Amino acid sequence: MPEMPEVEGLVEFLRGRLTGHRFDKAAVSAINALKTYAPPLTDLIGGAVTGVERHGKFVDIATDGGIHLVFHLAKAGWLRWYDALPATLIKPGKTPIALRVGFDDGSGFDLTEAGTKKSLAVYAVTDPNEVPGIARLGPDPLDDDFGREKFGALLTGRRTQIKGVLRDQSIVAGVGNAYSDEILHAAKMSPYALAATLSDDEVDRLFAALTTTLAEAIDTARGKPPAELKDAKRRGMRVHGRRGQACPVCGDEVRSVFFADNSLEYCPTCQTGGKLLADRRLSRLLK
């Protein structure tokens, strides 16, 4: 799933390519991806791009006509950029392409989604806050006014596992499964630690890990075209997606805990005092 660093990389790329150019084409080929009907997507045509911004993991392309094209790539979505947009006809249901957008210089992009579970979402709105997922976003952890005290206040009283807190977009915007693993590894903290029970020192470590990990990942993503962002993300991971490999800090084996539709990765030596966390799949079989 694209998270804050990759989405920020996409936003910077699109901002540099699209600002000042006019929409020439906007066509949905997966009707379930379009979540709004007014204004119609066709109202984008002729509008000049005035800016591209990120809201959590949402991309927001604004136009001088007052219409915003907003999209969320979900778990298996991605953006495929073309300097020259293909002229081939897209057949609904026969392609992973959910949306094709073209501009007056001949460039454009497709939004694609792999797999059978379709969650990619596209919106045409006059105000980004009309998108429910944006309206309920918590603060962005890299905003200038997001400090350690504000972060600590968000954790106070939450008897929820810290892994879930970091992934909850209404608490902190932009972090998903992969970077929450990386942040907790950098903070030397168990994913099962309860937010409300963290000491001041642990909150200090977690805040530092949160901001540093995301800032470094954004620096890695910066300047890369969309086709390179996924591989750059994978190469930068220390524990996420590296089950069975050696932890780069201590050399212990990176372990996984599996859930219904995802998994988490952690280092027992660095994060849990050597304790192995229960595999939820095995636990269900033993009941």
Automatic annotation (TrEMBL):
It catalyses: Hydrolysis of DNA containing ring-opened 7-methylguanine residues, releasing 2,6-diamino-4-hydroxy-5-(N-methyl)formamidopyrimidine. Gene3D superfamilies: 1.10.8.50, MutM-like, N-terminal. Keywords: DNA damage, DNA repair, DNA-binding, Glycosidase, Hydrolase, Lyase, Metal-binding, Multifunctional enzyme, Zinc, Zinc-finger. Its EC number is 3.2.2.23, 4.2.99.18. It holds the Pfam family zf-FPG_IleRS. InterPro entries: FPG_cat (IPR012319), FPG_N (IPR035937), H2TH_FPG (IPR015886), Ribosomal_uS13-like_H2TH (IPR010979), Znf_DNA_glyclase/AP_lyase (IPR000214), Znf_FPG/IleRS (IPR010663). Residues 238-272 form the FPG-type domain. GO terms for biological process: base-excision repair. The keyword Ribosomal protein does not apply. It comes from the Bacteria. Its cofactor is Zn(2+). Residues 2-96 form the Formamidopyrimidine-DNA glycosylase catalytic domain. GO terms for molecular function: 8-oxo-7,8-dihydroguanine DNA N-glycosylase activity; class I DNA-(apurinic or apyrimidinic site) endonuclease activity; damaged DNA binding; zinc ion binding. PANTHER family: FORMAMIDOPYRIMIDINE-DNA GLYCOSYLASE. Belongs to the FPG family. This is Formamidopyrimidine-DNA glycosylase.
